[in-house]
């Protein structure tokens, strides 16, 4: 198998640091940046949400990301095995939580990724009105079933090919292309009439908008977007070479992810305001309702091409994320139950696909899944997909992050963590950033993440 040289085992591994960075950035950059971030900002009141999100990313997620990658590389194991390594069997439960979160996230993520694929076809065929008929599109379960089946098949195919052959190769080509297109679209969006009001909404924070709900939304978004708190980066970290510098890798992954979310947000709010669609509520349909109109404004032929290409690349960005989501439970099954990768991928993929069917049917097709839960705290009713998203990304991920930091700082212990991050970057632990990282894992992250998780859970009931 190619790439073995780095992992020193038969599990496979990235062929070099660049391959790892591209794959991990591919995991991080996805629907979270382009689909979820704009509607979270819109629902969370604009600039104030953006500021909180950025603070969480740099102050909290950076140390947690480093801890996850270090943990994976040190143990050379999947999420469950990594926690249980070195005699900490009881901690395997945390890894199981990670596998569960990843599977839940993939179940609905695959459905949204299917929408992106469906929209690529619609744009190429010039059907821009699909944007204003978004409700009809997602309510059509035949189409949904078809596109999400296709998407899951592609994900399974890539994961089955293994670490360097599938995941790494796809990421290296597609990520830069997407970045290029988003840059272009952002520049175009800023030339539209009224765009400046969108930019203001996005960039000028109104701190009176900050509530607990926006804070935990920003926290959940930061974790989701950076693929943290569910073992994806533990698993990817286990395929990284000992000599690679994980500090610089972490910085690059973080900057790539935050940078792309930021540009995508700018583009979206410029388009939203220039089309007069502000204040209509965001939600899961935001990019799907706003962007087709924007592409139409480019012109009938060029708009079709750019729109189609955009959704194709969005699907690819989603693909490098679904691949990492599927890799977590697959690596667990392969390592711990000694099932062949090619078989494990199909079994796990099929189960998760089935788990996603209620999300697919909860957009008007089946009433039970459409009005799935009524939260007492906020007095709203949400559909199955929103329920799973809320549970997995806003609750389980910060909880996972909390457990990762407690584990790294107190169970695995600071010294071993220091040793691991210094491998490939000697002297880091005593630098300012190194000291901050250790402080954050010991005190800041456990405190903030722990309290946010507890209040989030309580807020659902009271
Ligand atoms: N970070 C991915 C995105 O932004 C989603 C994801 C979450 C992937 C958790 C892996 C793990 O789209």
Automatic annotation (TrEMBL):
Its main location: membrane. It is found in: Membrane. It is a multi-pass membrane protein. The chain crosses the membrane at residues 18-35, 47-71, 91-121, 141-160, 172-191, 222-241, 253-273, 309-332, 344-361, 395-412, 443-462. It comes from the Bacteria. PROSITE patterns: NA_NEUROTRAN_SYMP_3. Keywords: Membrane, Transmembrane, Transmembrane helix, Transport. This is Sodium-dependent transporter. It comes from Flammeovirga kamogawensis.
């Amino acid at each position: 198998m190619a790439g073995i040289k780095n992992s020193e085992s038969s599990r496979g591994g990235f062929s070099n640091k660049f391959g790892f960075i591209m794959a991990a950035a591919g995991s991080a950059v996805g629907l979270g940046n382009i689909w979820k971030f704009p509607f979270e900002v819109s629902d969370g009141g604009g600039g104030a949400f953006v500021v909180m999100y950025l603070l969480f990313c740099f102050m909290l997620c950076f140390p947690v990301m480093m801890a996850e990658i270090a943990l994976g590389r040190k143990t050379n194991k999947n999420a469950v095995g990594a926690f249980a390594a070195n005699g900490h069997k009881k901690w395997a439960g945390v890894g199981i939580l990670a596998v569960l979160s990843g599977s839940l996230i993939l179940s609905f993520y695959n459905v949204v990724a299917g929408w992106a694929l469906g929209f690529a076809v619609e744009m190429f065929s010039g059907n821009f009105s699909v944007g204003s008929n978004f409700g009809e599109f997602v309510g059509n379960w035949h189409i949904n079933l078809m596109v999400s089946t296709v998407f899951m098949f592609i994900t399974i195919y890539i994961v089955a090919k293994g670490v360097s052959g599938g995941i790494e190769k796809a990421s290296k080509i597609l990520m830069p292309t997407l970045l290029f297109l988003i840059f272009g679209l952002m520049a175009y969006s800023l030339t539209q009439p009224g765009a400046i009001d969108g930019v203001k909404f996005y960039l000028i924070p109104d701190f009176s908008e900050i509530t607990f709900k926006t804070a935990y939304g920003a926290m959940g978004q930061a974790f989701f977007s950076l693929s943290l708190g569910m073992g994806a980066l533990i698993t990817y970290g286990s395929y990284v070479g000992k000599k690679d510098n994980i500090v610089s890798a972490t910085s690059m992954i973080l900057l790539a992810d935050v940078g792309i979310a930021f540009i995508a947000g700018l583009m979206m709010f410029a388009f939203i305001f220039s089309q007069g669609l502000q204040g209509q509520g965001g939600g899961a349909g935001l990019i799907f309702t706003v962007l087709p109109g924007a592409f139409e404004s480019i012109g009938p032929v060029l708009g079709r091409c750019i729109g189609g290409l955009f959704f194709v690349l969005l699907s690819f960005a989603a693909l490098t994320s679904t691949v990492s989501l599927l890799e977590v439970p697959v690596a667990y099954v392969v390592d711990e139950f000694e099932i062949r990768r090619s078989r494990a991928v199909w079994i796990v993929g099929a189960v998760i696909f089935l788990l996603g069917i209620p999300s697919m049917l909860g957009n008007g097709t089946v009433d039970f899944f459409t009005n799935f839960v009524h939260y007492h705290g906020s007095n709203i009713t949400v559909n199955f997909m929103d329920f799973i998203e809320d549970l997995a990304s806003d609750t389980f991920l910060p909880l996972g992050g909390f457990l990762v930091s407690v584990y790294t700082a107190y169970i695995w212990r600071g010294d071993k963590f220091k040793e691991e991050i210094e491998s490939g970057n000697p002297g880091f632990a005593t630098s300012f950033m190194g000291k901050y990282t250790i402080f954050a894992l010991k005190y800041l992250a456990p405190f903030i993440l722990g309290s946010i998780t507890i209040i989030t859970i309580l807020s659902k009931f009271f």
